[in-house]
Amino acid sequence: MPAVERGYHCQNNPTTMKPHILSLALSLLPLTAVANQPWQDQHINSINREPMAAHFLPFSSEKAAVGNRMLPAAARYANSDGQRRVSLNGTWKFLYFKNDASCPADIYKSNLKKPASIEVPGSWELQGFDAPIYTDTRYPFPATPPFVPTDYNPVGVYQRNISVPDAWKDLDIFLEFEGVESAYYVWLNDELIGYAEDSRLPSVFKITGKVKKGNNRLTVKAFRYSDGSYLEGQDYWKYSGIERNVSLTARPKSRIADFHLNSPLVNGYHDGDMSLSIKMLNPMKGESIAVRLYDGDREIWSNTHTIASAADSILDYSHLVAAATPWNAENPHLYTLTVTHPAMRRRRSPILSDSERWRCATVSSSSTARLSSSKESTGMSMMP
Q1: How far apart are CA 292 and CA 288, in angstroms?
Q2: Cβ neighbours of residue 12 under 8 Å, at least 6 residues apart?
Q3: Cα-to-chain-centroid distance, residue 219
Q4: pLDDT of residue 351
Q5: pLDDT at 282 over 80
Q6: Would you say 336 and 364 are in contact if contact means Cβ atoms under 8 Å apart?
Q7: Which end of the chain is least crowded, N or C, by CB within 10 Å?
Q8: Nearest CA among 316, 317, 322, 278 for reference residue 300
Q9: Which helix (H) or strand (E) holds 356?
Q10: Residue 160: φ, ψ to 5°
Q11: How far apart are CA 124 and CA 94, in angstroms?
Q12: Please, which residues bridge with residue 318 across strands?
């Protein structure tokens, strides 16, 4: 991270110190005036955002979840067969402003006037608005953390209409942004849905009860710089905007909320030691969670847990795979794990599918070995 630069210098002589102190106080006036803004406040990096969790997509059947895993990586997100997900990628309406002051405060309350078109996902600098900036060890603006410039801090306003399927009526509905740089507000119709930073992390907002039947006006206001930019000042090209996928997702009230999967090699790198922890939200007595592990098309292990009470929210599974086939660059062998939340009282429930690999990396300069397992970047796929 680049060193913080200071724009003033105080000498020991009291008579020469006063002008410098006065100059510093004056220079901070335009910064402290906006200190209550989330994008200038290091204590706020989200508003109304769902807790961070492992990333997975909802599916309506195990067959659909596993089938999606078999697709080429580039096709997995585009394929929505069997998913409770609607992609919002595509052409959005867009307006560009030099800074926040030039952007109307109530811009989300009506349709954008004379907007341009922009493709989502994509950086606005690569679509004719402003220009990319490259820096190595320096910030692209004067460093006075947590503040960023207010005169030049471009703002991009995105807008489009969204609607949800009628079949989602009794489900919780979520709006997910997989990556927006650097900070952004989200409104649905005239209501603030939330705010988020963290350009390389997904942000999920619950919009159950806020989305109405038919068309809904979705507005996103993104800032090029925020207090988060100080942590993202890496050696790379600086772009802005909605740079990753956007989607709507539906989930049942009782559902799998999160999971943690670990699969190191043990016993002299011979066997695979799988452990899985599942976090439930609103578990219901009598529901069951079925876990299956496949080697190719062959099921090699399964286990089913029945929810005993509403307090049964953390479920732990483990299994030792004898003579596990290790993953390596020459033979990238993957096992498939599925977790099914079966239907109860004719209600569809979630299925998730994940690939895992057993991998060993030996550190040749010492006698120790480091064991690790990792999942595909798409994470778990789920069938709610």
Answers
A1: 13
A2: none
A3: 18
A4: 56
A5: yes
A6: no
A7: N
A8: 322
A9: strand 351-362
A10: -160, 165
A11: 9
A12: 275
CA dihedral 35, 40, 45, 49 (to 10 degrees): 80
The mean pLDDT of the chain is: 82
How do beta strands 335-340 and 351-362 pair? antiparallel
Residue 29 has pLDDT above 60, yes or no: no
User: For residues 207 and 227, is the Cβ–Cβ distance under 8 A?
Assistant: no
Tell me the pLDDT band of 191, cut-offs 50, 70 and 90.
very high
DSSP-derived 3-state class of residue 20? helix
Q: Can you tell me the mean pLDDT for 80-84?
A: 74
Instruction: Find out whether 272 and 337 touch, Cβ atoms under 8 Å.
Output: no
- At 379, which amino acid appears? G
d(CA 74, CA 72): 6
Beta-carbon contacts of 281 under 8 Å, excluding residues fewer than 6 positions away, are 254, 255, 256, 257, 313
Which token pair is 60?
């309506």
CA distance 130 to 125: 5
At residue 169, the 3 state secondary structure works out as coil
Let me know: does 176 contact 120? Beta carbons within 8 Å.
Answer: no
* Alpha-carbon distance values, 351 to 170, 306, 315, 345 (Å): 18, 15, 15, 17
If phi > 0 it is left, if psi is from -120 to 50 it is alpha, else beta; for residue 90 that is left
List % helix, strand, coil for the chain (3-state, nearest 5). 10, 40, 45
Q: What are phi and psi of 110, to 5 degrees?
A: -150, 170
d(C-alpha 316, C-alpha 376), whole Å: 21
Best CA proximity match to 224, nearest among 179, 183, 177, 178? 183
pLDDT of 171 over the 90 cut: yes
Q: For residues 240 and 123, what is the distance between their CA atoms, to the nearest angstrom?
A: 5
Could you say which DSSP state residue 199 is in? T
Report d(CA 149, CA 368) in Å as an integer: 49
pLDDT, tens only, 237-280: 999 999 999 999 999 999 999 999 999 999 999 999 999 999 99
The residue whose two tokens read 């078109």 is 117
Q: Which residue has the tokens 């600086």?
A: 238
